[in-house]
Amino acid sequence: MNPLEFHRSMPGYAPTPLIEFGGFRVKDESNRFGLPAFKVLGASWAVNQALGPARTFAELAAKVRPVTLVTATDGNHGRALAYLARVLGLTSRIYLPGGLPESTRQVISAEGATVIDTGRPYDEAVQLAAGSVTTGDVLIQDTAWPGYEDVPRWIVAGYDTLFAEIDEQLPRCTRAGKGVPDLVVVPTGVGSLLQSALEHYRGRARVLAVEPTTAACVGASLEAGKPVSVDTSTPTIMAGLNCGTVSSIAWPTIRDHLDMAVTVTDDEARAAMHVLHAHNIQAGPCGAAALAGAQKAALQATSVVLISTEGV
User: Fold this and answer.
1) b/e per residue 247-256 (b: at least 16 CB within 10 A)
2) What is the torsional sign of CA 195, 197, 198, 200?
3) Segment 87-104, tens digit of pLDDT
4) In degrees rounded to 5, what are phi and psi of residue 152?
5) Is the pLDDT of residue 190 over 60?
6) Where are the alpha helices (DSSP H) in 174-265?
7) Alpha-helical runs (H) found in 202-238
8) Relative to the CA of 41, which of 2, 196, 198, 259 has its CA 20 to 30 Å away?
9) 72-84 burial, b for 16+ CB within 10 Å, e for fewer?
10) 91 with 69: CB under 8 angstroms?
11) % helix, strand, coil for the chain, step of 5
């Protein structure tokens, strides 16, 4: 079974819309299984692989053993994992970096999770979550490091559902009937969604990564020719992209296949968000970063897909 088939078996599954406006097509991830982001795609496939694997979500729910799902998060990944724990009858423990709004804690707590505010930068919150795992805990972290790579690979594989949906939606959206865009623009944190895009298109489409100017670990790593960490202590409204280190499994794919990376400021993301809202696309700052990055890069392309990764 592939991730798309598994996701189709989940209650409430529906493809998210591909919306055309102003020469762009926006993959709007503001409502995925009732959650405001794409993250549940990777989290659910990783949980299935870690605790199953099962062919369907119902089969997974019937066979899953009692465990606590653990992760660190800037928001949406942790909320998605807490949601999955709740619907599967499991418990969850979610570690937050410092500087997040109280609303982030509240929505994750509302899913039944135990939420721990570390007060530390994202990379340190990840270390604390990983170091907390004991018997009966399962770490479902969406970044990889040496010795922890299986779960992040499953998360990347789960994200492929998003791009498989675009394959099916584009022929109905383009006059030429072309199922592959010329350019795909991906907001980027640790690089997992970016890795999924690069692996899905495999050179059939150009891919542009967009990062906050204050957390551009992909751009810094490309410039250095090796993975480097950047300081993410400066706040950004693009909280879900505020990551200082590229995932170790994403880096080789990014290094060898990414076409271009740009950075955007909070003001640029905010302006893009207002434009999208004016077109009834309820993107949050991270989702709007795709539009801001596409405008800044000004690449020539006849078919451009923006991945709006989250809603407000």
Assistant:
1) bbbbbebbee
2) positive
3) 999 999 999 999 889 999
4) -60, -35
5) yes
6) 192-201, 217-224, 250-257
7) 217-224
8) 259
9) bbbbbbbbbbbbb
10) yes
11) 45, 20, 40
For residues 232 and 242, give the distance between their C-alpha atoms in angstroms, rounded to a whole number: 6
Using DSSP, state whether 273 is helix, strand or coil: helix
Cα–Cα nearest to 74, from 290, 285, 306, 296: 285
Residue 176 has pLDDT above 70, yes or no: no
- C-alpha 168/C-alpha 166 separation (Å) is 5
Q: Which two tokens stand for residue 35?
A: 């959650």
Q: Are the beta carbons of 284 and 311 closer than 8 angstroms?
A: yes
Taking the alpha carbons at both ends of the chain, their separation in whole angstroms is: 33
Inter-residue contact 224 to 254 (CB < 8 Å): no
88 within 8 A of 61, measured Cβ to Cβ:
yes
pLDDT one-digit tens code per residue, 130-145: 999 999 999 999 989 9
Radius of gyration of the chain (CA): 18
Q: What CA–CA distance (Å, rounded) separates 167 from 212?
A: 28
If we measure between CA atoms, which residue out of 262, 263, 242, 246 comes closest to residue 254?
246
Residue 32 in contact with residue 13, Cβ under 8 Å? no
Give the three-state DSSP class for 80: helix
Q: Is residue 249 within 8 Å of 195, Cβ to Cβ? A: yes
**pLDDT tens sequence across 198-213:** 999 998 999 999 999 9
- What are the C-alpha distances in Å from 81 to residues 41, 146, 193, 195? 10, 23, 16, 20
**Residues forming beta bridges with residue 207, ordered by sequence position:** 184
Residue carrying structure tokens 């923006």? 306
